[in-house]
């Protein structure tokens, strides 16, 4: 009898605790917010959320803010949390979970054209002599039927000391083109859809670039793309040239000359300050970023060409980049504003654009790129809603496409004692 009485009492206490929680929540609701569009197309903010941290009233809480309103982390269901595990899950429909199981989350390993999804991943198989054979595992799926096929192809045999990885996947006609970083070089492996290796294309960069990459004065990387999994005709290769303070703007030559017109216009924005939570590179008297040369590999022509040059003259700031259909963009930001260098892929000409914190509506906190647009998250820096918002820049037009503010959605959010710190962007 005592055991049953104890069970009943525990149930009563539990129900009482739950009831108290909901009554308190009804009487003292948490501050609520929403993204309110003040200029431009609201569609630019679809699926976009701002992650934030509310430090007062206590206890501190994480939340997400969208067009629909705000949601605190403790309010999210297990399903909602699981929903964001893989960035491509929503696009692959009902067959997504089965296809994505056991695969890398990086979009660069995928190709997605609305009808077919392709996944490619390299694998090293060690041999007895310490060398390795390099294979690529490819899996494809029809998005409508869910029918899958896969194959494994030997790319290289008996290699040593290399860690090749897939950097881009494209389908051109009835061939797959795999852009692979291979021991400081780039190669494109062309595969037939039935799994045969048709040919290998060496992405030929000037010898001075490859030599500099080996001694550390040159660093190479692929140009960023907001959706690496989408079909595209070209891929950009950034060649960053470093030198010491004394080198000025004349570091070791990185290769071919930039096309005519590939020079900057206007004056530099100068010191923009550090973005909150980020710090600039402390170069001291060591290597500084002198210039960046952009090369473009054309999948159809299977050839590489110099596209243009950014002269940076010993920069210590962190520069971000993005490739659009018509331009390559280099940008940096700090608490005082944002500076953007935009290169035309047609002629290599570079233009400079500077946006002050006042023009952006607040101090930049983070940036995010989507579909040819740069999203700049801003705040006032003191936890108030003044200056808390989003400015969307159209990269091809170099113009403001839309603006939005983080607005209160209930009276609790209007309390001046409430502090809200905006952190980052996410897609849901």
How would you portray this structure in words?
By secondary structure, the protein is mainly beta. It is 12% helix and 46% strand. The strands form 6 sheets. Strands 1-24-23-22-21 form a 5-stranded antiparallel β-sheet. A 4-stranded antiparallel β-sheet has the order 4-3-2-25, with no helix packed on it. The protein has a 4-stranded antiparallel β-sheet with strand order 5-6-7-8, with no helix packed on it. 32% of the residues are buried.
Key structural traits:
five-stranded antiparallel sheet; 2 domains; 428 residues; mainly beta; globular; 5 helices; 25 strands
Number of domains: 2
By DSSP (H or I, 4+ residues per run), the number of helices equals 5
Pattern of helices and strands: HEEEEHHEEEEEEEEHEEEEEEEEHEEEEE
Q: Find the count of extended strands (DSSP E, 2+ residues).
A: 25
Q: Can you tell me the overall shape?
A: globular
Q: Strand fraction band?
A: over 45%
Which stretches are poorly predicted, pLDDT < 50 over at least 5 residues? Answer: 16-27, 245-265, 275-283
Widest sheet: strand order? 1-24-23-22-21
